[in-house]
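QA checklist item 7 of 12: single-chain prediction sanity check.
[x] sequence parsed
[x] length recorded as 125
[x] structure emitted
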Amino acid sequence: MSIEAQLDKVNGFPEGSREALQEYLETGKREALDRLVVHAIRHYLPSTSQYKTDHSLAITPDMQIVADVGMDSLSMMELVFFMEDVFDVQIEATEMQEIKTIGQLMDFADNRLGPKLKASASGAA
């Protein structure tokens, strides 16, 4: 998948999402991937979550995905589908069930998905 096609996957996401993905594709910096994860979480949160619309509220690695941020099962499924699409991988339900905090999700993206994303970007160049 081309870099432009990967960047198109974050159209409609919170401001800064495209830049975070592009920076990660170009540099592999973990900080850029972490920002992308937070943007994706904000994008898929239910509209009832205060974190969906109030971007002045920080989403931090120690926060619980469900209890603190307010993701429900549907928003988690949408997040998984997004990650599978952008990273071009299959994610098992058991893998996602083990992830409880934002930090664990960031680690998962970096360890499991990041190498695949970087490899596909370098192959498209």
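[x] summary fact logged: The mean pLDDT is 88.
[ ] second reviewer sign-off
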